[in-house]
UniProtKB/TrEMBL annotation:
Keyword Transport: yes
Domain named ABC transporter: residues: 15-263
Name of the protein this chain belongs to: ATP-binding cassette domain-containing protein
Family label: Belongs to the ABC transporter superfamily.
InterPro entries named in the record: AAA+_ATPase, ABC_transp_ATP-bind, ABC_transporter-like_ATP-bd, ABC_transporter-like_CS, P-loop_NTPase
Gene Ontology MF annotations: ATP binding
Superkingdom per UniProt: Bacteria
Taxonomic classification: Bacteria, Pseudomonadati, Pseudomonadota, Alphaproteobacteria, Hyphomicrobiales
Keyword annotations from UniProtKB, A to Z: ATP-binding, Nucleotide-binding, Transport
Length: 279
């Protein structure tokens, strides 16, 4: 097993959201003709520093993916701000936006839906360079990234259906690395994978933080998975951050009810496994 992710000294946040609130209007008006809205994120503060791995954990529907969409600029928040390198991403020129888009990349839960099934892997890997208009020696960049994620060059000629889920998630991570990001945001990157290969993908993400100095935002339902990969964890419940702490402190002295529930879920699973082993 490789070394734990250490948090070196970190300086100011590289990517941060301050007091972000997101509401959605519900499609159907009420009988009175008003259109109710749903507050999905409620005055959220969240940040990651250079080279830091942070976690975000919370029950289903607590707002984690909405936070991801706002942190990556896919959605503009109704209130509040997102800063990259100290500058508001929604309040700058095209050059600032381009830098932000290259610098913050995301890995989603299901690699099969994030890769086009009709495209060879090599073409998929080049696609972010084309869409972000990044110039340079693209072939060299592809080989470099394949090495970083532990894939052979033969992968380039193949199609997604020829790979297992774990290999495909490696390819999705490679694709996210292509533009040379400073921050990787992984939204439930192992929850669609077989338990037996989850650890490989988690170790790869840790290695990328340690070897490339990337910042990582790791999002999951499961506190133990987040604890393995990160050094500071925010717990989310019903659109709010209810607790922030080091993983071990959250395990040993959970303060918020949502944190206690997440710790309880792990203990229940473990007792269940132990029970099965004894049966
Ligand atoms: N575009 C939208 N319009 C209306 N409601 C939305 C929209 N996107 C998300 N929601 C609602 O916001 C809430 C939070 O959703 P979100 O997907 O962010 O949660 P999550 O924590 O990622 O959940 P999961 O763990 O299941 O992935 C849910 O109630 C969801 O139905
Ligand atoms: Mg989600």
């Amino acid at each position: 097993m490789n070394a734990p992710v250490e948090t070196p000294l970190l300086g100011r946040p590289l990517l941060e959201m301050r007091q972000v609130t997101q509401t959605y209007s519900l499609a159907r008006p009420t009988l009175l003709g008003t259109r109710p809205s749903l507050t999905v994120l409620d005055h959220i503060d969240f940040d990651v520093r250079p080279g830091e791995a942070v976690g975000l954990v919370g029950e289903s529907g607590s707002g984690k993916t909405t936070l991801t969409r706002i942190l990556t600029g896919m959605e503009k928040p109704r209130e509040g701000h997102v800063f990259y390198n100290g500058a508001d991403i929604w309040d700058g020129d095209g050059e600032r936006w381009r830098t932000f888009r290259r610098s913050v990349q995301v890995v989603m839960q299901n690699p099969r839906s994030s890769l086009d099934p009709r495209m060879r892997i090599g073409v998929s890997l080049l696609e972010p360079l084309r869409s972000l208009k990044i110039e340079g020696d693209h072939a060299t960049r592809v080989f470099e990234v394949l090495d970083q994620v532990g894939l052979s060059r033969q992968a380039l000629e193949r199609y997604p259906h020829e790979f297992s889920g774990g290999q495909l998630q490696r390819i999705a991570i490679a694709r996210a690395l292509m533009p040379g990001p400073k921050v990787l945001i992984a939204d439930e990157p192992v929850s669609a994978l077989d338990v037996s290969i989850q650890a490989q993908v988690l170790n790869l993400l840790k290695d990328l933080v340690n070897n490339l100095g990337l910042s990582l935002v790791f999002i999951a339902h499961d506190l133990s998975v987040v604890a393995y990969t990160t050094s500071r964890v925010s717990v989310m419940s019903a659109g709010k951050i209810v607790e922030v702490g080091k993983p071990m402190d959250l395990f040993v002295r959970p303060q918020a009810e949502a944190t206690r529930n997440l710790v309880g879920a792990i203990l229940t699973v473990e007792s269940g496994l132990a029970g099965n082993a004894l049966a």
